[in-house]
Amino acid sequence: IFFCPIVALLAILCTPSDKEMRIKWISAICSGTAMGLSLWTFFAYDKAQGGLQFVEKIVWAKSVGISYLLGLDGFNAPMVLLTGIVAFAAVMSSWDMKHRVKEFFALFMFLVTGVFGVFMSFDMFFFFLFYEVAVLPMYLLISIWGTINKEYGALKLTLMLLAGSILILTGFLALYHWAGLNSFSLLDIKAVQGTLSPDFQKILFLGFFIGFSVLAAIWPLHTWSPDGHVAAPTAGSMLHAGVLMKL
Questions:
Q1: Three-state SS for 72?
Q2: φ, ψ dihedrals at 232, nearest 5°
Q3: CA-CA-CA-CA torsion sign (126, 129, 135, 141)
Q4: What pLDDT is recorded for position 6?
Q5: CA distances from 150 to 161, 228, 238 (A)
Q6: What is the Cα–Cα distance from 194 to 23, expressed in whole angstroms?
Q7: How much of the chain exceeds pLDDT 90, in percent?
Q8: How far apart are CA 225 and CA 22, in angstroms?
Q9: Mean pLDDT, all residues of the chain
């Protein structure tokens, strides 16, 4: 699932800009494949067994405990399925795109890659990395292909989401340090959460709550969302409402 939009991104970048229909077909085929795989994994998930399944783990930076750790559990499987469906529908809704087609679909696939990564990542470092990958293309999609007050909407969305992500990153680093495991794995940290002091957990929760409240557009930290919805192109607005609000 995760590599389908990456394949599309690389294929689009290698395709001449004047081959607009080929770019659209590459996007449609790869996003359709991702949707099919997301459907398969959703129904193949063993609900009786539960827990983390379809795990991919590669040690990335052993000295600091960073691993490429992706998987599906009962919580994120529906989100991955939703992303696959919305991404394919957004590509089909953009079939009539005429303006800078190559750049549009390349950024769109880059965005979808980040969204899949956020939902499937169980390593805090890669969770944050994929989240930033999901935010930055949205700025360009809105500012270039947007409609009403697009520069203002794109900049406000990006700045507020980056501000929220700073709080989240600070919390991740604090959790990494105080857990004392030399691991960014959420699975490892979950195992020792009972050893963290209640006061530390309350402070950490406050930072996470504010940071993720910005991402989830909870009042009164939601003001970026209406401006982003109004300014975004159709495909961007579909991902914004259907997927990005769930990150």
A1: strand
A2: -70, 150
A3: negative
A4: 82
A5: 16, 8, 16
A6: 51
A7: 4
A8: 33
A9: 81
